[in-house]
Amino acid sequence: MSFITVGHDNKSSLVDKINIVERSVVGVGIHTPLEARKPQLIGTGFVVGDGSYVVTNYHVVSKELSTDIVQKYVALDGEGRVVRSHYLEIIGIDPVHDLAILQSKSKMTPIELAQPNLKEAGTEVFFTGFPLGAVLGLYPATHVGLIAAVAPDVNPSKNADQLTLNLLSRLKNPFLIYQLDATAYPGNSGSPVFDMHSSEVIAVINKVFVSAGKEAAITNPSGISYAIPIKHVYALAKKHGIKL
């Protein structure tokens, strides 16, 4: 399975790059056939490796599915209302870095990942995903920005009752995360972040800074988003014997 590449000559327009990379960006959903014909889109993912693996956020697929109503995670690819569903099995999870790798029995189009070294602040990026779901069909949206900072990942908490085990682990051993000068929305969770020049995946969107309630992420976005560096995807894949 060959990877999709755009080239490193910087001559391709952003339009060309988006047309190519979006073939590897998929919706991640839950299919409950006994309750609905169509899957419910819950996030974004992207295809890697031999074309059978999908990377997304752990929090996107952390829900325990019901066996009574035969719920399954699916990857959705295609465009508009012409959408194909690929059933997924969770292969590996990394709750601390908010990452998960799932596998499909069918093959899709993989994208090339960048080398695991960190990018510097000022690097131009774009990310593609499904920020507002798929009410009218599967239409990926792209946002453009830059890496504003490379800083430790610390989620401030108002009180000790809000400290989870994962958060405590982060506070003890903070890792570097990208702060992006670009607006992501809830459905962008799991979206691949691309280097503007090489079009290789350098990170995975995992959260957006919200100054008010959860609804403010849509009505009054802060314009500050965060992404997990791709080196943690490499580490998770290696742990489970997945070749990227």
From TrEMBL:
Keyword Hydrolase attributed: yes
Transmembrane segments: none
GO molecular function list: peptidase activity
InterPro entries on file: Chloro_Bact_Ser_Proteases (IPR051201), Peptidase_S1_PA (IPR009003), Peptidase_S1_PA_chymotrypsin (IPR043504)
GO BP annotation list: proteolysis
Keywords: Hydrolase, Protease
Annotated family: Belongs to the peptidase S1C family.
Name listed for the protein in its UniProt record: Serine protease
Organism encoding this protein: Agaribacter flavus
